[in-house]
Give the backbone structure.
Amino acid sequence: MKFQLFALTALSTLFSSFALAAPSSLELKYFDARGAGETARIILALGKHEYKDTRFSITPGTMEAPEFKEAKESGDLDANLGRAPVLVVDDSHIIGQSRIIERYLAKKCGLMGSSDIEDAQIDCIAEHCRDIKDAAGKKGFSFFTRDKTEEEKAAAKKEWFEEDMPNMLGKLEKVVQIYSGGDGFAFGTSTSYADVAIFSLLKDCTMQGDAEATLKAAADCPSLLAIAEKIASDEGVSKWVADRPVTMF
């Protein structure tokens, strides 16, 4: 009787795991840009999941997006406070917030570890990457910054890539050394959401000209560079990066 109960429990766990990994109908709605939607696309490429990549076109020179406006007015984006991206699962379940979308897809693709504590530790590394990206945004040198002169933005950019970013990446390198179980992995000995977050931070820069400066800032972080390169060399990811639409940012 105990053996039968054990067998039934094992089968239940197996089928639950299969259900989590089984493909669903997925539609990602975002602008015709990388931005806040691209990490989700990278996860889907890594997991080799098919999905509908719905893009709101941006009018060159004006930054207007008529299709986005239409979707917003129709209520399609209400689950995300009228913003993009949103993920539609099985044509009925809508998920907002880019980071939540990423975590959902990462779990779906088996990139969040095998326990709650591993999930939290992997997520911790991904959030550190988010902190670094947010710090860069607050520095105020991007294409979208309007309250600074070009000279002020150039000075802020130089300080970021030569001082601030190397310092923050050095701290992230130490974090990875705590959790990593082998070269090319941020956590344990298998690919995780944390690896994708590091790849997106170091190798998938959205602004033209930032890629070289970013890699230079990470020159003293061999673990981070190895992780980013491992994701970049994945067959699904490399194909996506080579074939994806060319966008402004």
